[in-house]
Amino acid sequence: MTIAVYPGSFDPITYGHLDIIERAAAVFDRVIVAVCLNPGKQPLFTMEERVEMIARESARLPNVDVNCFKGLLTEFVKREDARIIVRGLRAISDFESEFQMALMNRKLDPEIETVVLVAQPKYSYLSSSIVKEIASLGGDIGGLVSDQVARHLQERFALHGLRDE
Ligand code: ADP
Description:
This protein is an alpha/beta fold. The chain has helices spanning 15-27, 47-57, 73-79, 92-108, 128-136, 147-160; strands at residues 3-8, 30-36, 64-69, 84-89, 113-118.
């Protein structure tokens, strides 16, 4: 059984992430979407909120689970009995950091392989950050995230009152 881990911030999950999850689920026996707690980043949504949103979006995919982790990704991957890390590549701008991360993870654990799935052109400009920026300014994020994620974003920004700043 081939188990793959798809790690990321998912703050929040977009249709670009979901596309990678679906395609990974078609290739691997089991996919664990792993929300990482990155102490360097101040997320908009808590770890629990991000996990819940991903779980809802991927509920129809029977071989996808959602989890979260702190610390080294390679250790989490080992603990889950996985050997594959899945990442998405949108543009050349993603390449450098993905390349560096893949090489570093290989140095940390040579038994773990990174598999990169190339984004669909229609999602290649899509990131959680740009979605947050548009939502914070009251722009239309339809077609970029699901309705439930859009609602969460609207609620969060209404709460913060960011539109009026
Ligand atoms: P991180 O902070 O680890 O980059 P993200 O949630 O931003 O977390 O992204 C997780 C992974 O998903 C990364 O490999 C990223 O390149 C990929 N990804 C993000 N958005 C898209 C998209 N629109 N299409 C394909 N892959 C994507």
